[in-house]
Amino acid sequence: MKKVNIEVPGLRIIKTILAVLIVMVIGVLSNGLLRQYDMAIVAVLAIQGTVVKSFKEVKTRISATVIGGIIGTIAMCIMYIENSKIFNIVLIPLGIFLILYFCSKLINRSEYILIACYVFLAITLDEEPQIGWIYPIRVMANTIVASIVAMLVNLYTPKRRKRVRVIKENKK
Description:
two-stranded antiparallel ribbon; 7% strand; 6 helices
């Protein structure tokens, strides 16, 4: 018999799959309020190699989501009142400018820019924009819930010691 080394999936892979599984269940239990797609992406991105890196990623993600969500909500309300496609063509780049300026110059957190812009655009460029607080809160809740789940999974998953498993292969 020949011995074959098969590498067992690493802990980060297992934690990522577990976080995605949990947010998928939460999405089902929320009866459509939270979107599985958005939460699964956030869960994959939030799991990092160490708990410290994961915590930093979650903190960044939640803070940037709130910034993009607030600016996006204000822009969405203005877009609803004005109701002009030409006006929106100017308003959306203005919102992006505000995020860029606020994150990079005022609070010196350029790592927030990408996520804040994504959330802003998710709110303002939705195919069927919804006025009111429900949609922006839903977008922000998806990110916050998935980030917290990923952080908890990363925090409470035991460390793995053995990485390689040896199995015996029958020669034919």
